[in-house]
Design brief:
Number of domains: 3
CATH topology of the largest domain: D-Maltodextrin-Binding Protein, domain 2
Structural class: alpha/beta
Strand content: 15-25%
Shape: globular
CATH class of the largest domain: Alpha Beta
Amino acid sequence: MRTLDLTALRALVAVADSGGVTRAANLLNLTQSAVSMQMKRLEQAVGLPLLERAGRHVILTSAGEQLLGYARRMIALNDEAVTRLTEPSFEGELVLGVPHDIVYPHIPSVLKRFSAEFPRVKVNLLSSYTTALKAQFEEGSCDIILATEDTRPEGAEVLATLPLVWVGAPGGTAWRARPLRLAFERNCMFRPLSQAALDRVDIPWELAVESDSSRSIAATVSADLAVHVAIAGTTDVHFEEICHGDTLPDLSSTHINLYVRDLPDVKRAPGQERMAEMIRGAYLSRPLQRSAAPGQSVTAAALAS
């Protein structure tokens, strides 16, 4: 009976998630040749090719895709068993703060993986504005936060830098109206930026809704009653990037920054460093990006890129 090497299976998962051997090596903190050797060892074990080249990228063969499903389950079960048997001291609570507009696409999968590794740690997810989250972080109420900022303040680690885009209802026409109707939360940092951009090109605007509820904003925009501004690659199926053909002004970019409380090990929240590592890995292996050229529609496909 042949035995599959879990280390090689982890390499297979990393290659599949990152789309290449080089990125997988970075994700696993290994050399490219080490990852290639693990993949060769895995192919020898099953007697089938698992990878094939497609231009500059590497993709899984049909056998590789089939093995990938088993690999994920085997690794998850292994990690859960090791955690439960060898790390019973990891108990307590970890507080993670994330702005509501960047919860998707990465945070749900990170929380799921963290829960499997640290089943006794309660994760309290706070979703609020960057300014509120930073205030809570500074007063010690949060252990880790993500923030959307146009600068890189001291203590911040930049995970991604992405453009801001105009978004509206799929196939909507609200962006054609003048004055342009806007929908923003009262404390949204993108609100003054978009209004200033419109003022610079003399496009009149008015607020269609002003609320502290992101659900109210989403309902107004998805009903094609107003437009909004979002980070490219973070929109869901209810929004799409507006194909305005330069009718609306270009917007600036923003950083997605990571903050982790710097405390002695004995005072850190349980699993704090592992949570930060998972978040970094999520942005490295599946970077947010635009799935279309400027002026073309960007839909939920951006979440799968």
